Amino acid sequence: MSAVSTVHTVSGPIGPEQLGVTLPHEHVYINMTLTTPQDGYLTVAEEAESELALFAAAGGSTLIDMTNGELSDYAAPAGFATDERMMQQNPATGSRSVANVLATKEVAERAGVQVILGTGHYYDHYLDHRWFDRTSTNTLADHLIADLEDEIPGTGVRAGVIGEIASDLSHITAAEERSFRAAARASRETGVMISTHAATFPTGLAQLEIIREEGVDPGRVVIGHADTVKSVDYSLEILRQGAFVQFDCLMTCRIGGQLVRHQIDRRLSFLRTIVEAGYGDRVLLSQDVCQRSHLRALGGPGYIFLFEEFRPLAIAAGIDEDVLDRIHRDNPRRAIFGA
Description:
- The chain has one domain: Metal-dependent hydrolases (TIM Barrel), CATH 3.20.20.140.
- About 35% of the residues lie in helices and about 15% in strands.
- The chain has helices at about 45-55, 100-110, 130, 135-150, 175-190, 205-215, 230-240, 260-275, 305-315, 320-330, 330-335, and strands at about 5-10, 10-15, 20-25, 30, 40, 60-65, 115-120, 160-165, 195-200, 220-225, 245, 255, 260, 285.
- Helix 5 links the parallel strand 8 and strand 9.
- Helix 1 crosses helix 2, helix 4 crosses helix 5 and helix 5 (about 175-190) crosses helix 6 (about 205-215).
């Protein structure tokens, strides 16, 4: 398994010992209005700072922001940049918008939280096919590598991980396959972790197959949204193949200020099965805050549901506190750094 000695946050590089309690799949600023027009837009600086401050107060240290190039378009506070081009996804490289990166850096530093940025491409419906289809897979990979090793253009900030790399149907489209192959080639070149979006359908196994075909060790891969697939056997198969499984859609567990017990109980059952099967060192947990209704102030989980509500319920369900501590600290470190 390839490993990296440092990972870049919005404020510079950190080592494994500096990571601390980590949320591996969240969003600070995001634009999902293409598919969620009334709710999928996080762009209010005061709200972002307040939510991140709650995470820091709960003992949180690091958050991985999986807003990719497509989801960064106009994903910054209104008026943050007077040049409209800074608000838009980079048309030449597909990288995150300048405003998204700099606004995230600003709010993270104000809140005292380490934020690692992802780089990559979302699912087919969001892609600029005119650009995507005219850009070779190797060139797509080169742009990701540049985001990781040089800077996200115009920001002076480097991405730290590859993700979220997405497919969203029961199959992977041709364009999405090229996105996954580009991500794999960038990971193979840099050693950086890949984190995916595989919601509802058990397509994470197909994603993993593509990534492995490109020569990436599955231990550098996190299959995301696995908790949305209502079969623990799917998660166990991913784990048997050597990848990480991520239960990151815990935003469905707290809605309108109320706990949703059937969502919580299914995830607790899956998590207990995984731990009892001996895979507790390769499961990750997160909330995937990506809509305004997910904010704690608006009755959602925020970035603290895992620590303030899910944790005591997990302990009551028979999951040891030490296991939960390792999931929040050791497992993200292992996934990110490869060691």
